[in-house]
Design brief:
Layout lengths: L2 H4 L3 E5 L3 H11 L4 E5 L2 H10 L4 E4 L8 H11 L5 E5 L4 H9 L4 E4 L4 H21 L7 E5 L3 H10 L5 E5 L3 H5 L8 E5 L9 H8 L5 E4 L9 H4 L3 E3 L5 H11 L12 H13 L5 H8 L3 H12 L3 H19 L4 H7 L5 H12 L3 H7 L2
Parallel strand pairs: 1-2, 1-3, 3-4, 4-5, 6-7, 6-8, 8-9, 9-10
Helix pairs in contact: 7-12, 7-15, 13-14, 15-17, 16-17
Length: 364
């Protein structure tokens, strides 16, 4: 489903001139949500991490120029309308831009009516195309026996792009697998009570879902022959390696996962291990840069603050603990990094629309 179908269209402005970006806000804020990128690399990162409906693209931008930006979209088969808005008033770049898939070419300075008409026309064309071809389905990812921090980080990072479900590392958990809607299964054998039938049980549950195995084999009865037909991520498992493997294993007919930049992936990796006692200063030190730069970079690519992201990870971790353990809500709140149960409850209402006690009573 496009953002246009959901409500306000999401427009990405790749433009290094602050005055021009401000003009876009004045013209479009009443009808659209506007994302900003002051260079080509940031623009590509935002495009890959958000469901963008339209790109307003300058040709003369830092990092990579607009034509190279369009070439990337063309080569990657990224299906998003692009309106070029630039001071380059020559036939050659205009022809090249249109050849690479731009739907319109507007020169600066532009008339307000011209830009508004181009945006309306491009969005209408996207809506018509979406109605003719149903959007790809969000993939279902089943995590079996994965560590709490890793599963919470994946759930928080992919919430808009995939259906992520978790099963605890217990025999009871394997006995109550969710409905067979998984398109890919991730099995961490280092934390499971292994037996000969574990992989057979998962294959029977979702026979068409590829199986990704983490930390294999350290103990138990699984052998190399048992794993030969499956994808093994070697230890030590990193979030980047797992995300890359998930992307490769998903069927091409499914909606793709976002391509997070290397720095943002490093932030996610750190958060997955330290979300309960996170210090922005320690995070900056671990990445070898300033906390301010980390926060700015994360917000630019993800469209949310680092604080919001960490809170989402904490909520996902608490949700799993509430379902899988009998711990008191007060203790779970402290374990995931919240001040108290009241703090956790506010975060639950904000991000899940329900309270922790309601989730525990229903079990999901």
């Amino acid at each position: 489903m496009t953002a246009t179908a959901r409500g306000r269209p999401l427009v990405l402005a790749v433009e290094d001139d602050p005055g021009c970006r401000e003009a876009f806000h004045i013209l479009l804020d009443d009808s659209c949500t506007l994302l900003e990128a002051a260079d080509g690399f940031t623009g590509l990162a935002l495009l890959h991490s958000h469901k963008v409906d339209l790109v307003l693209l300058d040709l003369l931008i830092p990092g990579i120029d607009g034509v190279t930006f369009l070439q990337h979209l063309h080569d990657s088969a990224v299906d998003v309308p692009v309106v070029v808005v630039t001071a380059v008033d020559h036939a050659a770049p205009a022809v090249e831009s249109l050849r690479l898939g731009a739907v319109d070419y507007i020169t600066k300075p532009f008339h307000d009516e011209t830009l508004l008409a181009a945006v309306a026309h491009a969005l209408a064309g996207a809506r018509a195309a979406a109605e003719l071809s149903p959007p790809p389905q969000r993939p279902g990812i089943l995590l079996v026996g994965c560590p709490l921090g890793l599963s919470a980080t994946l759930s928080a990072s992919l919430t808009s792009h995939a259906r992520v479900e978790t099963v605890p590392a217990t025999l009871a958990g394997l006995s109550f697998l969710p409905a067979p809607s998984a398109d890919v299964i991730v099995l961490d054998v280092d934390h499971l009570p292994l037996g000969d039938d574990v992989i057979a049980q998962l294959n029977a549950h979702a026979p068409l879902a590829p199986l990704i195995v983490l930390n294999a084999p350290r103990r138990g009865t699984l052998t190399a022959d048992d794993l030969a037909a499956h994808t093994v991520v070697p230890a030590p498992v990193t979030l980047r390696a797992l995300l890359d493997t998930l992307q490769r294993e998903l069927r091409p007919t499914l909606s793709p996962l976002p391509a997070f930049g290397p720095r943002v992936t490093d932030v996610m990796e750190y958060v997955s291990r330290h979300y309960a006692r996170l210090s922005l200063r320690d995070l900056g030190g671990a990445l070898g840069t300033s906390p301010y730069y980390v926060s700015r970079l994360f917000h630019a690519e993800m469209g949310q603050t680092l604080k919001t992201y960490v809170n989402r990870v904490r909520v996902e971790a608490a949700r799993r603990l509430l379902v899988e353990t009998r711990g008191k809500i007060e203790s779970i709140a402290t374990d995931v990094g919240c001040h108290d149960a009241s703090h956790l409850s506010r975060l639950f209402v904000q991000y899940l629309g329900r309270r922790p006690g309601d989730l525990r009573r229903t079990g999901s």
